[in-house]
Amino acid sequence: MSFLDYFKGKKSNNTANVAKERLQIIVAHERGQRDQPDYLPQLQQELLAVIRKYVQISDDMVQVEVDRNESCSILELNVTLPER
Amino acid sequence: MARIIVVTSGKGGVGKTTTSASISTGLAKRGHKTVVIDFDVGLRNLDLIMNCERRVVYDFVNVIQGEASLNQALIRDKRVNTLYILPASQTREKEALTKEGVEKVINELSETFDYIVCDSPAGIEHGAMMALYYADEAVVVTNPEVSSVRDSDRILGILQSKSRRAEMSQDPVKEHLLLTRYNPARVERGEMLSVADVEEILAIPLLGVIPESQIVLNASNQGVPVILEEDSDAGQAYEDAVARLLGEEREHRFMTSQKKGFFSRMFKGG
């Protein structure tokens, strides 16, 4: 800090907080995908292609997730159809 | 039975080899018979950091392939006599580190050593996977910086799913966070993630905080593990980390900046 800066006071932009918030979001997202089987992205693409034969939907309107319980796994498919 | 410790991070350049050199030297200094293995086939550097680059005759891959015995390949440290280095191969393909080959070498070392420290290469490819596969404990080296923290989280996921302990459903690999290149003054100015921030995101126990220090470069220039620079802050921080690794309770140091006086701030800049 130079002589003049000392009197101007500290800058208020706290970049560490921005870093922390960004990290919390991306890490939470990646942890969610960590246990997912490898075939999931391709399955999502192919499902999207099938649905598009009938209804025009965008990429983010199909969500595929696998929920693992102790005795079984559930493949959860969530398709949002556009409003008519 | 030796305790197997992997030093890993995902991201490169965060201080894995520096840490491997210091932790293995610290364990050996306390009388534990320790070997440190360089898993970075093709880009070996542990030998330089440990100042034994001119004494390498045989390497890890030679031992795996039966071209040399372990005793021929192990290099005894000249400063600490309970410390040995097993260098990586500089010329072979990474794939020469087979799972079976690595296991054979680790089993043989386990018979006579107390600690086996595995210095992982960067990334999450074959060499890094082999370095962490047999681990009992992991020291995850992280810089207070977004890409390093994210990569550390990825490595933690791999330790929890792809290590031998995970595959065999044994007790999980014991994880330790080592935050390196920490600059308390920048943290106080809000320019760098704090220890608490990184702990909160990664959610693993803190082994130590190594302050950013000019000593680290000076030490590597000369091939001296930082922990042997006993008067330096970074050296003492590594010493504390080794003590904690062995179960000692030690208060964390070097986490706040040395406040400069009014005059030095006015005239020298802060």
TrEMBL record, chain A:
<comment type="similarity">
    <text>Belongs to the MinE family.</text>
</comment>
<dbReference type="InterPro" id="IPR036707">
    <property type="entry name" value="MinE_sf"/>
</dbReference>
<protein>
    <recommendedName>
        <fullName>Cell division topological specificity factor</fullName>
    </recommendedName>
</protein>
<dbReference type="GO" id="GO:0032955">
    <property type="term" value="P:regulation of division septum assembly"/>
</dbReference>
<dbReference type="GO" id="GO:0051301">
    <property type="term" value="P:cell division"/>
</dbReference>
<dbReference type="Pfam" id="PF03776">
    <property type="entry name" value="MinE"/>
</dbReference>
<keyword id="KW-0131">Cell cycle</keyword>
<comment type="function">
    <text>Prevents the cell division inhibition by proteins MinC and MinD at internal division sites while permitting inhibition at polar sites. This ensures cell division at the proper site by restricting the formation of a division septum at the midpoint of the long axis of the cell.</text>
</comment>
<dbReference type="InterPro" id="IPR005527">
    <property type="entry name" value="MinE"/>
</dbReference>
<dbReference type="GO" id="GO:0042802">
    <property type="term" value="F:identical protein binding"/>
</dbReference>
<keyword id="KW-0132">Cell division</keyword>
From TrEMBL, chain B:
<dbReference type="GO" id="GO:0005829">
    <property type="term" value="C:cytosol"/>
</dbReference>
<keyword id="KW-0131">Cell cycle</keyword>
<feature type="binding site">
    <location>
        <begin position="11"/>
        <end position="18"/>
    </location>
    <ligand>
        <name>ATP</name>
    </ligand>
</feature>
<comment type="similarity">
    <text>Belongs to the ParA family. MinD subfamily.</text>
</comment>
<dbReference type="InterPro" id="IPR027417">
    <property type="entry name" value="P-loop_NTPase"/>
</dbReference>
<dbReference type="GO" id="GO:0005524">
    <property type="term" value="F:ATP binding"/>
</dbReference>
<dbReference type="Pfam" id="PF13614">
    <property type="entry name" value="AAA_31"/>
</dbReference>
<dbReference type="InterPro" id="IPR025669">
    <property type="entry name" value="AAA_dom"/>
</dbReference>
<dbReference type="InterPro" id="IPR010223">
    <property type="entry name" value="MinD"/>
</dbReference>
<feature type="domain" description="AAA">
    <location>
        <begin position="3"/>
        <end position="155"/>
    </location>
</feature>
<keyword id="KW-0717">Septation</keyword>
<dbReference type="InterPro" id="IPR025501">
    <property type="entry name" value="MinD_FleN"/>
</dbReference>
<keyword id="KW-0547">Nucleotide-binding</keyword>
<dbReference type="InterPro" id="IPR050625">
    <property type="entry name" value="ParA/MinD_ATPase"/>
</dbReference>
<dbReference type="GO" id="GO:0009898">
    <property type="term" value="C:cytoplasmic side of plasma membrane"/>
</dbReference>
<keyword id="KW-0067">ATP-binding</keyword>
<protein>
    <recommendedName>
        <fullName>Septum site-determining protein MinD</fullName>
    </recommendedName>
</protein>
<keyword id="KW-0132">Cell division</keyword>
<dbReference type="GO" id="GO:0000917">
    <property type="term" value="P:division septum assembly"/>
</dbReference>
<dbReference type="GO" id="GO:0016887">
    <property type="term" value="F:ATP hydrolysis activity"/>
</dbReference>
<dbReference type="GO" id="GO:0051782">
    <property type="term" value="P:negative regulation of cell division"/>
</dbReference>
<comment type="function">
    <text>ATPase required for the correct placement of the division site. Cell division inhibitors MinC and MinD act in concert to form an inhibitor capable of blocking formation of the polar Z ring septums. Rapidly oscillates between the poles of the cell to destabilize FtsZ filaments that have formed before they mature into polar Z rings.</text>
</comment>
